[in-house]
TrEMBL record:
UniProt xrefs under PANTHER family: GMP SYNTHASE [GLUTAMINE-HYDROLYZING], GMP SYNTHASE-RELATED
Protein name: GMP synthase [glutamine-hydrolyzing]
Taxonomic source organism: Rubricella aquisinus
Name of encoding gene: guaA
Domain GMPS ATP-PPase: 194-386
Pathway of action: Purine metabolism; GMP biosynthesis; GMP from XMP (L-Gln route): step 1/1
GO cellular component: cytosol
Pfam families, alphabetized: GATase, GMP_synt_C, NAD_synthase
Catalysed reactions, semicolon-separated: XMP + L-glutamine + ATP + H2O = GMP + L-glutamate + AMP + diphosphate + 2 H(+)
CDD domains: GATase1_GMP_Synthase (cd01742), GMP_synthase_C (cd01997)
Lineage: Bacteria, Pseudomonadati, Pseudomonadota, Alphaproteobacteria, Rhodobacterales
GO MF annotations, alphabetized: ATP binding; GMP synthase activity
Subunit structure: Homodimer.
Residues annotated as binding ATP: S221, G222, G223, V224, D225, S226, S227
Taxonomic superkingdom: Bacteria
């Protein structure tokens, strides 16, 4: 397996994606955890050092343990990882006078095994994002590629299989980045034989090992993730698993029924349907800060769990469908190297006082990998293909304070919108689509009367993993037809807008 040492870049997880796409098993570990002892135990066949926000010129900035370079395995440094390599192997890095962000073109200056297939048609497009740059190479290294602002864009010591690049080969804007990872892993002896079936078997083994003969309680949110986690755990430990579906009253129309039917009728998995809408909505009333809303929902979710866990006779484990992007975006500097964007409710909202251990078998996976695992487990296609739905539900699609009335309006508008998307055959082309009810009223005219009602925003994005996204280019006819259906069919809304923000700089959800 391959080890990715995370120095806190927002795109470290994309390195893992590129490798998984090439059927290579890899794990990401924050630099603080990667000690010499850890390396010995992990036994990586290759190491990748990620990018990160720090500057190696800062004496307190993170380093890799020196042992990474004496393991005798190939090492690839990316951006900050390149600078760490140069610094630790005897080169020199200086604070940059020209920060470089965005597209750049690299030209080849020497032949290199790693660059098989690169430069076939001239300079290669790459994505740069850095402030510092290497100014003197470490002994043994030579330059293999340059860009106008990065004279050391690609450097290597091929005899040791040490490679370091200034740019980010893991992002989509480096179109041939995948080829670079493929070649790097081939040089390290990987054959690309890791599959989802293998992942499933390994996950089942780990669940059995972790849980023993204890009882597990699994929180179902209604989304694909927690459902796949539950079915996987059920396959591992059968009746030791009880599912609790916490119906927080923040579900979409029909969502609750679909989940209950799937689990009780299709899988015959023991399921408690906890209808706690009043508890959640009362607690949320008057709260308009997105992080507070997320924390309240996270806390109540766990409280409800604990109550049911006790009622089934002391479950020691709580299972959740936490995904890798949930983990990475919630890890703040104290726990790991990235900056907090949002507290995802299944991670950031966990109260300290929780007295159950977590089982999170999807923690390493991306959304599309979870879908592949769901198919591997025989979940119906219509369920596996469902758009993601966030744990905090409609609460984060109702910016500002929440009321039952607003939720009701939102649910109706959302149902009309999705009906339109399905009727036009667009559901599967879109990663996620939903309505947002804005906390603004505007004036309108309907019939001969004045209206003063809410504004509804529609959101639809395409994405591969939820980490980056683009708005979906609906036709104007579709948007016009949908807007007039919503205004005609949903009382309380008199204006509809379409959100055309990509991620970044926006996020997919509004809160
Ligand atoms: P953002 O809004 O951060 O969302 O761009 C990325 C993806 O994550 C979903 N999301 C969540 N999923 N718990 C979840 O399980 C959460 O708290 C949460 N917040 C956002 C969001 O719907 C999108 O698919």
């Amino acid at each position: 397996r391959l080890l990715i040492v995370d120095f806190g870049s927002q795109v470290t997880q994309l390195i893992a994606r590129r490798l998984r796409e090439a059927n290579i098993y890899c794990e990401i570990h924050p630099f603080q955890n990667v000690t010499a002892a850890f390396l010995t135990e992990f036994g990586p066949k290759a190491v990748i050092l990620s990018g990160g926000p720090a500057s190696v010129t800062d004496p307190d900035s993170p380093r890799a343990p020196q042992e990474v370079f004496t393991l005798g395995v190939p090492v690839l440094g990316i951006c900050y990882g390149q600078q760490v390599m140069m610094e630790q192997l005897g080169g020199k890095v200086e604070a940059g006078h020209h920060a470089e962000f965005g597209r750049a073109f690299v030209t080849q200056s020497n032949d290199l095994d790693l660059l098989d297939g690169w430069f076939a048609t001239g300079p290669e497009q790459v994505w740069m994002s850095h402030g510092d740059r290497v100014t003197a190479l470490a002994p043994g290294f030579e330059v293999y590629g340059t860009s106008p602002n990065a004279p050391f864009a690609i450097v290597a010591d091929p005899s040791r299989h040490f490679y370091a690049v200034q740019f980010h080969p893991e992002v989509h804007h480096t179109p041939n980045g995948a080829g670079l990872f493929r070649k790097f892993t081939q040089l390290a002896g990987f054959t690309g034989d890791w599959t989802m079936a293998a992942y499933k078997e390994e996950a089942i083994r780990l669940i059995r090992e972790q849980v023993g003969d204890e009882q597990v309680i699994c929180g179902l949110s209604g989304g694909v993730d927690s459902s796949v986690a539950a079915v996987l755990i059920h396959e591992a430990i059968g009746d030791q698993l009880t599912c609790v579906f916490v119906d927080h009253g923040l579900m979409r129309a029909n969502e609750a029924d679909e989940v209950v039917t799937l689990f009780r009728d299709h899988y015959n998995i023991p399921l408690i349907h906890a209808d706690e809408a009043d508890l959640f909505i009362d607690a949320l009333e008057g709260q308009d800060d997105p992080e507070k809303k997320r924390k309240i929902i996270g806390r109540l979710f766990i409280e409800v769990f604990e109550k049911h866990a006790k009622s089934i006779g002391g479950a020691k484990f709580l299972a959740q469908g936490t995904l890798y992007p949930d983990v990475i975006e919630s890890v703040s500097f104290s726990g790991g190297p990235s900056v907090t964007i949002k507290s995802h409710h299944n991670v950031g909202g966990l109260p300290e006082r929780m007295d159950m251990k977590l089982v999170e078998p999807l923690r390493e996976l991306f959304k599309d990998e979870v879908r592949a695992l769901g198919r591997e487990l025989g979940l119906p296609e219509a369920f596996v293909g469902r758009h993601p739905f966030p744990g905090p539900g409609l609460a984060i699609r109702c910016p500002g304070g929440i009321t039952r009335e607003k939720l009701d309006i939102l649910r109706k508008a959302d149902a009309v919108y999705l009906d339109q998307i399905r009727k036009h055959g667009l559901y599967d082309e879109i990663w996620q689509a939903f309505a947002v009810l804005l906390p603004v009223r505007t004036v309108g005219v309907m019939g001969d009367g004045r209206t003063y009602d809410f504004v509804c925003a529609l959101r639809a994005v395409t994405s591969v993993d939820g980490m980056t996204a683009d708005y979906y280019p609906f036709s104007h006819e579709f948007l016009g037809e949908t807007a007039s259906r919503i205004i005609n069919e949903v009382r309380g809304i008199n204006r509809v807008t379409y959100d055309i923000t990509s991620k970044p700089p926006g996020t997919i959800e509004w809160e």
